[in-house]
Amino acid sequence: MEQPLLSWTEAGLYCEAGGFHIDPHRPVAKAVITHAHSDHARRGSQCYWCTETSVPLLRVRLGQNIQVEGVPYRKTIRFGSVEVSFHSAGHILGSAQIRLEHLGQVWVASGDYKREPDPSCEPFELVACDVFVSEATFGTPRFIWEKTSNHGQALESWWRKNKNAGFNSVIYGYSLGKTQRILAELMRFEVSPIWIHESMAALTACYRTAGRQLAPTRVLPRTGTPKIFLTGGELVLAPPSAKKQEWFLASNNFQTAFASGWMLGQQSGNSYRGGAGFDQGFVLSDHADWTDLNRTILETGASRVFLMQRNKGVLVRHLKTLGIEAHPVTALSPEIYSQLPQKNLELFSWPLPLAQKLSSKGTS
Q1: Half-sphere exposure of residue 333, counting CA atoms within 13 Å on the CB side?
Q2: Helices 314-321 and 290-299 meet at what angle, rounded to 10?
Q3: Range of the domain at 15
Q4: Are residues 345 and 316 in the same domain?
Q5: Are residues 170 and 233 part of one domain?
Q6: Tally of structural domains, the chain
Q7: pLDDT, mean of each 10-residue run, the chain (364 residues)
Q8: Verdict on whether the full-model pTM lies above 0.85
């Protein structure tokens, strides 16, 4: 019975031939980590491997005393009979796709990735493979956004408009990745120091130490410390969890925004409808949209694809219409995998132009 190189287990993706997990859901002996977000890097494992750039972020998130080995991008390391290397995912600073080579087969576990330019992190690298285990956060055709948007200009214009009207501006976004991207996008503008929530300070310092150019900041203390009075015109970056408290504002003289790909669902044409409890929404995502998910899957040359689906299998069904063998990631459980049609996985010549790739799969 053919066994998958990566199996789906209760602890997440497991490589038996190498004796390690990728982004495990629970403590394990050997954890290979794609990036430092808390749904991928969890506490308790005996030893971690990640990119060199991710090491400081993992220590902030998981503890300074964790046992962690930083690996340069593209350097090959071995776990048992498996060769493993890290390749940039373009998601956040230090994020990686994990390439595994074993017995002539190449598998890639993508973690989260994006292909849009982002001044706060390394650019995405396309990796050819036989089997691609891909994220699919925005795996429905309703999530297609403009790739040429000037995010910095949009953010600065909204801040300036509020300032001219005497309002403070609060942008909610995740403490790791989104915050630093906003600061990087605003770097080219002549802006006053931006207040950041204290939970963002150490992570932002990691970006600066890595050489990323960010707009100037000052730290807003946590709740329980003396409140800081914000005069009209300040910009504050805060995590979504702070929205329920609004502890950092001495008055209601503020406008709020949320920066996320999910804000696309709050758009009506070019206007924000004001839903989800915010005055403004910025479609600023650290993930691939529908177009880039499809583009990436096709361009890897993978003959078999497994998806971390969140949208009821929409992308799985779409890929099948293109003649691509696609499955939810749960099909990597040995019991299900053994029932899949057996095939010799052959690495396509790469890269193929998209039109040629589609043609090779019997589509027009």
Answers
A1: 8
A2: 50
A3: 7-143+287-360
A4: yes
A5: yes
A6: 2
A7: 88 97 98 98 98 98 98 98 98 98 97 97 98 96 89 96 93 96 95 92 98 95 59 88 65 84 66 65 96 98 92 90 94 87 54 41 33
A8: yes
Two tokens, residue 174: 């995740």
- How confident is the model over 19-60, as pLDDT tens digits? 999 999 999 999 999 999 999 999 999 999 999 999 999 999
User: What residues contact 288, with CB distance under 8 A and at least 6 apart?
Assistant: 113, 114, 115, 135, 137, 138, 296
Looking up tokens 């914000």, which residue turns up?
Answer: 230
Residue 351, preceding bond cis, omega within 30 degrees?
yes
Dump pLDDT digits (tens) for 290-319.
999 999 999 999 999 999 987 779 999 999
What gap in Å lies between CA 66 and CA 55, rounded to an integer? 10
Length of the chain measured in residues: 364
* Partners of 132 in the β-ladder: 108, 305
Residues 6 or more apart from 191 whose CB is under 8 A from it?
Answer: 156, 159, 215, 216, 235
CB neighbour list of residue 88: distance below 8 Å, 6 or more residues apart: 73, 95, 96, 97, 121, 122, 123, 124, 125
Alpha-carbon gap, residue 93 to 96, rounded angstroms: 9
